[in-house]
Amino acid sequence: MADLTEAQARDREDPLAPFRARFRGDPDLVYLDGNSLGRLPDHTPDRLADVISRQWGERLIRSWSEGWLDLPLEVGDAIAAAVLGAAAGQVAVADATTVCFYKLAAAAIGARPGRREIVSDLHDFPTDRYVLESLAHGHQMTIRWIDSDPAGGPEPAEVAALLSEATALVSLSHVTYRSGHRADMAAINALSHEAGALTLWDLSHSAGSVPLQLDRDGCDLAVGCTYKYLCGGPGSPAYLYVARALQSQLRQPIWGWLGRADPFAMAPGYVAADGIRGFLSGTPPILSLAAVDAGVALIAEAGIDAIAEKGSRLGSFLIAAADERLAPHGVSVATPRDAARRGAHVALAHPRAHALTDALIRAGVVVDFRAPDVIRAGLAPLSTSYADVWAFIDTLDSLLAGAGVTAQWR
Ligand SMILES: *Cc1c(COP(=O)(O)O)cnc(C)c1O
Predict the structure, then answer these.
(1) What digits encode the pLDDT tens for the residues 258-304?
(2) Could you confirm whether 202 is annotated as catalytic?
């Protein structure tokens, strides 16, 4: 039975339960949107206060040589070790996800001259699709779109059907933003490489929610944002991963001074810095980078395997409760039921999803709506309890029954 007693029993047995109190904000708020904006870790304001008062306020410009210039690569290595399954020297934190995605997609296209096609998913996150459209337009290329299942995501066979000697790049989200479907990264990398194409993965909904093994799984390129499961705060910079073997072959298109070898020589002509530093462009946002570092430290402390395990259990609990309590009201699960094939968010479909989402938020249950008919519940494992999941199900049940909100879970 999925009920409050069961949820409370699961919380008592949950080894990660104490982490929920390590975030700021109203502990009674049912916050199921940590996959859009992660909660504020309790220690992050102190870290930022030090960067502001001491590093900026006292040390001023000297701070650039006292650590700031290395921060993009240091935090990159921390993300690589904590959540990406990547060896050091392959990840940098820089720019928005959109810009990192542009830089790596352009670099991949440039490394496959003569190949005129890109394979991607028609239902991928909009910014990825738009950037690919821009690149295809600028390079006279064609995008071959997979029309993936909206309650699932791109499958290896669908990728295989579109690959050819013309494919330069295969670009997909690992965990799909709407359905939470988790793609078979290793299989798709292998298929793409057989066809001679490079792969670019968007990990925005994967990093910090599911285990990743970018090096082992043969990933070429990846990007992701840091303000979702990594709790870097609003607008915190993204990260980009370039497999070491490709770093000297690929050229990113935004040739800024901080991606140049010996930037302070201010010399004529651009020469890319060696390694992952050559994928940087301009001055890094130090305040946000420090916040990312603080968020990633919390993830590292809990451990990604334990986090992923809890994410899959929270999802299974939600799905079982939805089947029992919400299916009779016409709610269907629009997320893969196999925990190995999904991330840490669950989509529930209902024709009145938009109005229901607004009513849930008014009732203190923060979820989000994704067009056309999905209520999306993000189950950020460190800041979400089973009682939170129960509160969501019970509130939605009351709303659908037209009974108002009982709030008996508080
Ligand atoms: C959240 C998200 C982004 C965000 O891009 P920004 O440039 O940071 O706004 C990109 N891709 C995916 C798949 C996302 O989920």
Answers:
(1) 999 999 999 999 999 999 999 999 999 999 999 999 999 999 999 99
(2) yes
What's the confidence (pLDDT) of residue 2?
82
Q: In ligand 1, which atom is closest to the CA atom of 173?
A: 13
Which atom of ligand 1 has the smallest separation from the CA of 202? Answer: 13
Q: For the sheet with 345-349, list strands across it.
A: 332-333, 345-349, 374-378, 368-370
Q: Residue 98's Cα: distance from chain center in Å?
A: 12
Mention every residue, 6+ apart, whose C-beta is less than 8 A from residue 406: 394, 398
Q: How many CB atoms lie within 10 A of CB 300?
A: 14
| Structural domains of the chain, with CATH | 4-31+303-401 (3.90.1150.10), 46-301 (3.40.640.10)
Letter for the amino acid at 99? V
**Helices marked H in 195-285 — which ranges?**
none
Ligand 1 centre distance from Cα of residue 127 (Å): 7
The one catalytic residue among 227, 239, 279, 386: 227
Which tens digit of pLDDT belongs to each residue from 312-356? 999 999 999 999 999 999 999 999 999 999 999 999 999 999 999
Q: Which strands form 198-202's sheet, in the order they lie side by side? A: 91-93, 239-242, 221-224, 198-202, 167-173, 117-121, 142-146
Q: Is 227 a catalytic residue?
A: yes
Q: Is 394 a catalytic residue?
A: no
From 19, 23, 102, 125, active-site residue: 125
Instruction: List the residue whose alpha carbon is closest to atom 1 of ligand 1.
Output: 204
Q: From the CA of 202, how far away is ligand 1's center (Å)? A: 8
- Residue 177 CA, closest ligand 1 atom number: 15
Evaluate the omega torsion of the peptide bond into residue 284 and state whether it is cis, within 30 degrees of 0.
no
Instruction: Please count the other Cβ atoms lying within 10 Å of the Cβ belonging to residue 234.
Output: 9
DSSP helix/strand/coil, 20: helix
Q: What confidence tens digit (pLDDT) does each residue in 367-385 have?
A: 999 999 999 999 999 999 9
Ligand 1, atom 6, residue with closest C-alpha: 97
Cα 236 to middle of ligand 1, angstroms = 11
How far is ligand 1, taken at its centre, from the CA of residue 184, in Å? Answer: 20
